[in-house]
């Protein structure tokens, strides 16, 4: 196994959160050029990332590491890459903030049964939409369960969709610990998103 490169990045907290939001982690890990060519993405979170300064490391093989709080792999332009993300020694006091209002996404959604559709026109990216949609759907379907919804993982065959309608459908509850939903762009299934209730 060879470490191909390491990048240091400083994130900003979103709103009143005291951790780095998954949508920022997603954007930082994936390549900016040719993002539509990313396939077979697997990403899991292993604890809140509370330090805004982090290193993202890329490998040519699975490092089988258990250190990174964010770990996974993806294919990009014919090559498979593995990654992990590790926190630096920065403190929360060092982190800047930016505004973020999920309600703008919630307001563009319609829940029918076990699924949620987005038809709004707010200027949000694909990952921002599906994370907020799934959180809103799970909160609606499990209104009687106390706790906080936390993103734990995603599996996508494709990370890019120009379809006008994004849809997330809840499909499975693993002992009230892990909740699995399908992600669709139009009628095409793109993959799965996982949340836990903590």
Features:
2 domains; mainly beta; two-stranded parallel ribbon; 44% strand; Thiol Ester Dehydrase, Chain A; 198 residues
Topology, element by element:
Elements lengths: L2 E8 L2 E2 L7 H8 L8 E8 L7 E7 L10 E7 L2 E9 L9 E2 L4 H4 L2 E4 L2 E4 L7 H16 L7 E10 L7 E9 L3 E8 L2 E10 L1
Parallel strand pairs: 2-7
Antiparallel strand pairs: 1-4, 3-5, 3-10, 4-6, 5-6, 8-9, 9-11, 10-13, 11-12, 12-13
Task: Describe the structure in your own words.
The chain is mainly beta and 198 residues long. It has two domains: 96 residues, Thiol Ester Dehydrase, Chain A; 95 residues, Thiol Ester Dehydrase, Chain A (Roll). Helix content is 14%, strand content 44%. The strands form two sheets. Strands 1-4-6-5-3-10-13-12-11-9-8 form an eleven-stranded antiparallel sheet, with helices on one face. The model has no long low-confidence stretch (mean pLDDT 89).
Brief rundown of the structure:
With 198 residues, the chain is mainly beta.
Q: How many helices in DSSP terms? A: 3
The secondary-structure element order is EEHEEEEEHEEHEEEE
Please state roughly what percent of the residues sit in beta strands, choosing from under 5%, 5-15%, 15-25%, 25-35%, 35-45% or over 45%. 35-45%
What is the name of the CATH architecture of the largest domain? Roll
Strand order of the largest sheet: 1-4-6-5-3-10-13-12-11-9-8
- What is the domain tally? 2
CATH fold topology of the largest domain = Thiol Ester Dehydrase, Chain A
> Could you name the CATH class of the largest domain?
Alpha Beta
Structural class: mainly beta
Rounded to an integer in angstroms, the radius of gyration calculated over CA atoms is 17 Å
> What fraction, in percent, of the residue positions are helical?
10-25%
Largest sheet: 11 strands, antiparallel
Number of strands: 13
Approximate shape: globular
The averaged pLDDT comes out at 89
Distance between the termini: 35 Å
Unreliable residue runs = none
């Amino acid at each position: 196994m060879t470490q191909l490169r390491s990048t240091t990045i400083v994130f900003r907290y979103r709103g009143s959160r005291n951790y780095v939001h998954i949508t920022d982690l997603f954007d930082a890990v994936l390549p900016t050029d040719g993002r539509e060519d990313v396939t077979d993405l697997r990403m899991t979170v292993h604890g809140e990332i509370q330090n805004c300064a982090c290193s993202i490391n890329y490998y040519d093989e699975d490092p089988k590491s258990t250190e990174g709080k964010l770990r996974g792999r993806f294919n990009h332009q014919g090559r498979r890459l593995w990654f992990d993300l590790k926190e630096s020694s920065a403190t929360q006091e060092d982190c800047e903030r930016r505004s973020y209002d999920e309600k703008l996404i919630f307001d563009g959604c319609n829940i029918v049964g076990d699924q949620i559709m987005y038809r709004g026109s707010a200027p949000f990216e694909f990952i921002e939409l599906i994370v907020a949609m799934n959180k809103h759907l799970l909160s609606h379907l499990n209104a009687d369960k106390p706790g906080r919804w936390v993103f734990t993982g995603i599996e996508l065959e494709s990370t890019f969709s120009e379809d006008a309608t994004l849809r997330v459908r809840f499909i499975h509850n693993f002992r009230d610990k892990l909740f699995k939903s399908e992600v669709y762009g139009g009628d095409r299934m793109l993959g799965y998103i996982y949340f836990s209730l903590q």
